[in-house]
Protein backbone atom coordinates (compact mmCIF):
# COMPACT_ATOMS: atom_id res chain seq x y z
CA UNK A 1 0.00 0.00 0.00
CA UNK A 2 2.84 2.38 0.91
CA UNK A 3 4.50 1.66 -2.44
CA UNK A 4 1.33 2.59 -4.32
CA UNK A 5 1.02 5.83 -2.36
CA UNK A 6 4.68 6.64 -3.05
CA UNK A 7 4.26 5.93 -6.78
CA UNK A 8 1.09 8.02 -6.90
CA UNK A 9 2.87 10.90 -5.14
CA UNK A 10 5.80 10.71 -7.58
CA UNK A 11 3.41 10.73 -10.53
CA UNK A 12 1.55 13.74 -9.11
CA UNK A 13 4.78 15.68 -8.56
CA UNK A 14 6.03 14.83 -12.06
CA UNK A 15 2.71 15.90 -13.58
CA UNK A 16 2.82 19.17 -11.64
CA UNK A 17 6.38 19.89 -12.78
CA UNK A 18 5.51 19.02 -16.37
CA UNK A 19 2.50 21.35 -16.25
CA UNK A 20 4.65 24.17 -14.89
CA UNK A 21 7.26 23.59 -17.59
CA UNK A 22 4.54 23.55 -20.27
CA UNK A 23 3.35 27.04 -19.23
CA UNK A 24 6.72 28.64 -19.95
CA UNK A 25 8.05 27.93 -23.40
CA UNK A 26 11.11 29.26 -25.20
CA UNK A 27 11.05 30.08 -28.91
CA UNK A 28 13.98 31.04 -31.13
CA UNK A 29 14.62 32.25 -34.65
CA UNK A 30 17.49 33.24 -36.90
CA UNK A 31 16.81 36.51 -38.74
CA UNK A 32 17.76 37.16 -42.36
CA UNK A 33 16.63 39.01 -45.47
CA UNK A 34 16.19 35.73 -47.33
CA UNK A 35 13.26 34.90 -45.02
CA UNK A 36 11.50 38.22 -45.69
CA UNK A 37 8.42 38.39 -47.93
CA UNK A 38 9.54 39.23 -50.55
CA UNK A 39 13.12 38.11 -49.89
CA UNK A 40 15.85 40.74 -50.08
CA UNK A 41 19.65 40.76 -50.44
CA UNK A 42 20.38 42.25 -47.02
CA UNK A 43 23.61 40.97 -45.46
CA UNK A 44 22.02 41.63 -42.07
CA UNK A 45 21.71 38.79 -39.59
CA UNK A 46 20.23 38.36 -36.19
CA UNK A 47 18.81 36.02 -33.61
CA UNK A 48 15.89 36.21 -31.23
CA UNK A 49 14.77 34.29 -28.16
CA UNK A 50 11.25 34.69 -26.81
CA UNK A 51 10.38 33.21 -23.42
CA UNK A 52 6.59 33.26 -23.15
CA UNK A 53 4.89 32.22 -19.91
CA UNK A 54 1.14 32.40 -20.22
CA UNK A 55 0.61 31.46 -16.55
CA UNK A 56 2.61 34.41 -15.19
CA UNK A 57 1.73 36.72 -18.10
CA UNK A 58 5.36 37.42 -18.96
CA UNK A 59 7.19 37.52 -22.26
CA UNK A 60 10.94 38.09 -22.36
CA UNK A 61 12.35 39.09 -25.73
CA UNK A 62 16.10 39.05 -26.45
CA UNK A 63 17.34 40.18 -29.87
CA UNK A 64 20.83 40.56 -31.35
CA UNK A 65 21.34 41.94 -34.86
CA UNK A 66 24.10 43.30 -37.09
CA UNK A 67 25.03 44.18 -40.67
CA UNK A 68 21.78 45.91 -41.63
CA UNK A 69 21.85 48.04 -44.79
CA UNK A 70 20.07 50.94 -43.11
CA UNK A 71 19.14 52.13 -39.61
CA UNK A 72 16.33 50.40 -37.75
CA UNK A 73 12.91 52.05 -37.57
CA UNK A 74 10.85 49.41 -35.72
CA UNK A 75 10.72 45.85 -34.43
CA UNK A 76 7.82 43.68 -33.39
CA UNK A 77 6.30 40.22 -33.63
CA UNK A 78 3.75 39.51 -36.35
CA UNK A 79 1.10 36.80 -36.03
CA UNK A 80 -0.46 34.72 -37.45
CA UNK A 81 0.32 33.71 -41.03
CA UNK A 82 -1.97 31.36 -42.95
CA UNK A 83 0.73 28.67 -43.15
CA UNK A 84 3.81 27.95 -41.04
CA UNK A 85 7.06 29.71 -41.98
CA UNK A 86 5.60 31.57 -44.94
CA UNK A 87 3.53 34.61 -45.82
CA UNK A 88 2.89 37.81 -43.91
CA UNK A 89 0.70 38.77 -40.98
CA UNK A 90 -0.28 41.86 -39.07
CA UNK A 91 1.62 43.06 -36.03
CA UNK A 92 0.61 41.24 -32.84
CA UNK A 93 2.72 43.15 -30.30
CA UNK A 94 2.76 46.82 -29.35
CA UNK A 95 3.01 49.61 -31.90
CA UNK A 96 4.88 51.39 -33.35
CA UNK A 97 7.80 49.30 -31.97
CA UNK A 98 8.92 47.37 -28.88
CA UNK A 99 9.42 49.56 -25.82
CA UNK A 100 13.04 50.71 -25.76
CA UNK A 101 14.06 48.99 -28.99
CA UNK A 102 17.16 50.70 -30.46
CA UNK A 103 16.18 52.65 -33.57
CA UNK A 104 18.53 54.50 -35.91
CA UNK A 105 21.22 51.79 -35.72
CA UNK A 106 22.45 48.99 -38.01
CA UNK A 107 23.50 46.65 -35.20
CA UNK A 108 22.64 46.18 -31.57
CA UNK A 109 21.01 44.15 -28.84
CA UNK A 110 17.68 44.32 -27.08
CA UNK A 111 16.20 42.70 -24.01
CA UNK A 112 12.86 43.45 -22.38
CA UNK A 113 10.27 41.71 -20.20
CA UNK A 114 6.66 42.43 -21.15
CA UNK A 115 3.56 41.99 -19.00
CA UNK A 116 1.21 40.21 -21.40
CA UNK A 117 -1.82 40.92 -19.19
CA UNK A 118 -1.57 44.61 -20.17
CA UNK A 119 -3.37 45.94 -23.23
CA UNK A 120 -0.30 48.09 -24.06
CA UNK A 121 1.69 44.93 -24.89
CA UNK A 122 -0.62 44.12 -27.80
CA UNK A 123 -1.68 45.70 -31.08
CA UNK A 124 -5.40 46.50 -30.56
CA UNK A 125 -6.19 44.97 -33.98
CA UNK A 126 -4.60 41.66 -32.89
CA UNK A 127 -6.69 41.66 -29.70
CA UNK A 128 -9.85 42.25 -31.74
CA UNK A 129 -9.17 40.00 -34.73
CA UNK A 130 -7.37 37.07 -33.08
CA UNK A 131 -8.13 37.43 -29.37
CA UNK A 132 -11.89 37.83 -29.61
CA UNK A 133 -11.61 41.26 -28.02
CA UNK A 134 -9.93 40.10 -24.80
CA UNK A 135 -6.33 40.16 -23.59
CA UNK A 136 -6.62 36.54 -22.43
CA UNK A 137 -7.78 35.62 -25.94
CA UNK A 138 -4.84 37.52 -27.44
CA UNK A 139 -2.40 35.62 -25.19
CA UNK A 140 -3.93 32.28 -26.22
CA UNK A 141 -3.91 33.18 -29.93
CA UNK A 142 -0.31 34.37 -29.68
CA UNK A 143 0.74 31.13 -27.96
CA UNK A 144 -1.01 29.13 -30.69
CA UNK A 145 0.85 31.15 -33.34
CA UNK A 146 4.19 30.54 -31.64
CA UNK A 147 3.49 26.82 -31.33
CA UNK A 148 2.40 26.49 -34.97
CA UNK A 149 5.32 28.42 -36.50
CA UNK A 150 3.07 31.20 -37.81
CA UNK A 151 4.58 34.05 -35.75
CA UNK A 152 7.73 35.91 -36.74
CA UNK A 153 9.92 38.71 -35.44
CA UNK A 154 10.59 41.44 -37.99
CA UNK A 155 13.18 44.25 -37.96
CA UNK A 156 12.11 47.20 -40.10
CA UNK A 157 14.68 49.65 -41.49
CA UNK A 158 14.95 52.66 -43.77
CA UNK A 159 16.20 50.27 -46.49
CA UNK A 160 13.19 47.99 -46.15
CA UNK A 161 10.23 49.67 -44.39
CA UNK A 162 8.27 46.41 -44.62
CA UNK A 163 11.11 44.48 -42.97
CA UNK A 164 14.80 43.99 -43.69
CA UNK A 165 15.33 40.78 -41.69
CA UNK A 166 12.92 38.39 -40.02
CA UNK A 167 12.67 34.91 -38.60
CA UNK A 168 9.80 32.56 -37.76
CA UNK A 169 9.80 31.56 -34.09
CA UNK A 170 10.08 27.86 -33.29
CA UNK A 171 9.71 26.12 -29.91
CA UNK A 172 12.85 24.87 -28.20
CA UNK A 173 12.50 21.57 -26.28
CA UNK A 174 13.05 22.27 -22.61
CA UNK A 175 15.73 20.32 -20.73
CA UNK A 176 13.32 20.09 -17.78
CA UNK A 177 10.93 18.04 -19.90
CA UNK A 178 13.64 15.52 -20.72
CA UNK A 179 14.73 15.45 -17.07
CA UNK A 180 11.18 14.71 -15.96
CA UNK A 181 10.94 11.85 -18.43
CA UNK A 182 14.25 10.47 -17.15
CA UNK A 183 13.04 10.72 -13.55
CA UNK A 184 9.70 9.09 -14.31
CA UNK A 185 11.07 6.18 -16.33
CA UNK A 186 12.47 4.25 -13.32
CA UNK A 187 9.15 4.57 -11.47
CA UNK A 188 7.25 3.17 -14.45
CA UNK A 189 9.77 0.34 -14.90
CA UNK A 190 9.62 -0.52 -11.21
CA UNK A 191 5.83 -0.64 -11.30
CA UNK A 192 5.88 -2.87 -14.38
CA UNK A 193 8.42 -5.21 -12.80
CA UNK A 194 6.35 -5.55 -9.63
CA UNK A 195 3.20 -6.30 -11.59
CA UNK A 196 4.98 -9.09 -13.48
CA UNK A 197 6.28 -10.53 -10.20
CA UNK A 198 2.77 -10.94 -8.74
TrEMBL record:
Residues 23-174 form the CHRD domain. The chain crosses the membrane at residues 175-192. Residues 1-24 form the signal peptide. The keyword Transmembrane helix applies. Keywords: Membrane, Signal, Transmembrane, Transmembrane helix. Pfam families: CHRD, PEP-CTERM. InterPro entries: CHRD (IPR010895), Ice-binding_C (IPR013424). SMART domains: CHRD. This is CHRD domain-containing protein.
Amino acid sequence: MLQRVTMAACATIALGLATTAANATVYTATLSGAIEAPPNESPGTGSVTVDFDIATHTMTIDVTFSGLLAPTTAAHIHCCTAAPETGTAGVATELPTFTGFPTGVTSGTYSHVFDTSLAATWNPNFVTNFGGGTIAGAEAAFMAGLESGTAYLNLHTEFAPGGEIRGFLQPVPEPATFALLALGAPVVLLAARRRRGK
